[in-house]
Task: structure prediction
Amino acid sequence: MANIKSQKKRILTNEKRRVRNVAVRTRVKTYVKQAEDAIKEKDVEKIAAATKKAVIEIDRAAKNGVFHANSAARKKGSLQRQANAATAS
Result:
């Protein structure tokens, strides 16, 4: 445990952020998984709705600093490519 007051405070704030980030990452993974399941089913309406929800959650996580902006863009792009391939075929 730290002796310096500011470091003690930093430890507490880091833990709060870590807990929040874990919750946000879990929520993003849930929505992405739902979108991927819809893509496997090849139901066009489900794909559109699930992909939209997943992209919104990824954007929200990136805005709050849970994901880097480029990482979020990569996740969204990958999901959109899968969705487009499933709806095209």
About this structure: The chain has a mean pLDDT of 95. The longest helix spans residues 5-41. The domain at 5-88 is CATH 1.20.58.110 (Methane Monooxygenase Hydroxylase; Chain G, domain 1).
